[in-house]
Prior knowledge:
Elements: H1 10-13, E1 25-29, H2 36-45, E2 49-53, H3 56-63, E3 69-72, H4 82-87, E4 99-101, E5 115-116, H5 123-131, H6 140-149, H7 151-171, H8 178-191, H9 194-204, H10 211-231
Amino acid sequence: MRMKVLYQDQRFRAGASQISERGFTILGVFEPMSGLTSIMAELSTVGHIVYCADTMAEALAHARHLPDLVVVDLTLQGSPSPVIEALRRLSPPARLVPVLASAPMTTDHDSLIDAVLPDLADLAAVMAAIVAWSPVGLLAGITRLAEVFGAGEINALAGRFQMQLVDAVAALDTTPDRSAAHRIAGIAGTLGFARLGQSWLAVSEGDGTMCEAARREARVAIYTLARAAHARGVY
């Protein structure tokens, strides 16, 4: 099944994720018999922009156009996945794209994927898990601040914040630094990253159950900020 997406649209090349108020772009990588086929079709009917690739060449070609999210089915191909490894070898910001996988991964892939999807038989759960990674509207706060204080200053602040997020996500794999998490929450609030700020504030208050949400929101922000910097010619 093919669901054509207009990746040539300059809004995607600019990393803006603005096709609609609710939809975002998803690259699905899976074989024709995959359980992801119906899930991707359903996502496309509710406003999301979906492209499906079943070869390495197709997957990498479309990943270079910077979709919001990549979903890979390992149920049939197994692990390790050469597609995921190849994605992470792309030039930035493409290699920073959040990647979800539909099967349990080996330890070797822990640093290559961002989350494992629920059982593909549970359509509602899988849909919810994917949509949670939407970056639509994430840069609205930064855009407003840039209009008031100037793009140079705000973009520099956003760039520093992106680097802080990278370090903060790495720290989640050990013992979260609650003081650092509180700083992340404060900056996120200033820049208009509401979900990011809420999740990291919870981590700063010792709520370990929010670590995965904090990781997800940070990864979405890291990639979205990197795409915006790419549009400005930073990468």
